[in-house]
Amino acid sequence: MLKRMLWVSIFSVIVTAQASAGLIGSWEVDQGPSWQPSPTAYTGQEAAALLFGGNPSDYWISTDPNTITHTAWYSIIYVGLGEFAENYTQNTSGLYQTSGDASAYVNDNAIGPTYTNYAFSATPGVPEPGTTALVLSGLAASVAVIRRRKLQR
Questions:
Q1: Euclidean distance between CA atoms 113 and 99, whole angstroms
Q2: Mind listing the pLDDT tens digit for each residue in 33-55?
Q3: SS3 95
Q4: pLDDT tens digits for 105-120?
Q5: pTM listed for this prediction
Q6: Closest Cα partner for 45 from 108, 125, 117, 111?
Q7: What would you measure as the largest C-alpha separation in the chain, in angstroms?
Q8: What is the DSSP letter of 94?
Q9: N or C: which terminus of the chain has fewer CB atoms within 10 Å of its end residue's CB?
Q10: Which residues of 103-122 are buried (b: 16+ CB within 10 A; e: fewer)?
C-alpha cells in the first residue's frame, strides 16, 4: 500500500512537470496578405511563428479549438482549400504563386471564420510553484511513512 502511494506521488510529479499544451492564439487563413503579388507560402506552424513569435517547432496547430489535430486549413491557389498536416508545404519557390501552392496564411480561397487555425504551445510549461511544492510535500510525506514503517519492523 505504501509503495503504491510512493509510486502515485512520483507519477504526480512527472505529470505535473509535463504541463498540458495551452492555446496561444488563432487566426483566419484569409487574414494573411493578398495572393497578389505572390506573398510567402506558410505552413500552419510557420504562420503561427510569424504571428505569435518563436520558431515553427514551438507550435502545434489545430482546426479545432478544443482538440489538437496537428492539421491546419490551407488556401490552395487556383484550386480551392483543404485541411492538411500542420507542417504541410506545397510550393515551387516559397511563394504563393503557382497552381497548387498552399498557404495557411493568405487572403485567397479560405474566406471567413470557418477556416480558423488554432496555435497551441508545443513546449512543456513549467508548473506553478504552489503545485510543485504540494506534490513534493506529498512525496516527502510518503517517503517518511515508508521509512518509519521499515524501522518499526
A1: 24
A2: 999 989 999 999 999 999 999 99
A3: strand
A4: 999 998 889 999 999 9
A5: 0.69
A6: 117
A7: 81
A8: S
A9: C
A10: bbbbbbbbeeeebbbbbbbb
- List Cβ neighbours of 152 (8 Å cut-off, separation of 6 or more): none
**Radius of gyration over every alpha carbon of the chain, rounded to an integer in angstroms:** 23
Q: Which three cell numbers stand for residue 107?
A: 487572403
pLDDT of residue 18: 42
Residue 39 · residue 106 · CB < 8 Å: yes
Segments of the chain scoring below 70 in pLDDT: 1-20, 124-134
pLDDT value of residue 19: 47
The SS3 assignment for 75 reads: strand
- Using a CB cutoff of 8 Å and minimum separation of 24, what contacts does 94-99 make? 94/40, 94/41, 95/38, 95/39, 95/40, 95/41, 96/35, 96/38, 96/39, 96/40, 96/41, 97/38
pLDDT of res. 138: 75
C-alpha cell at 71: 492539421
Reduce the DSSP state of residue 77 to 3 states and report it. coil
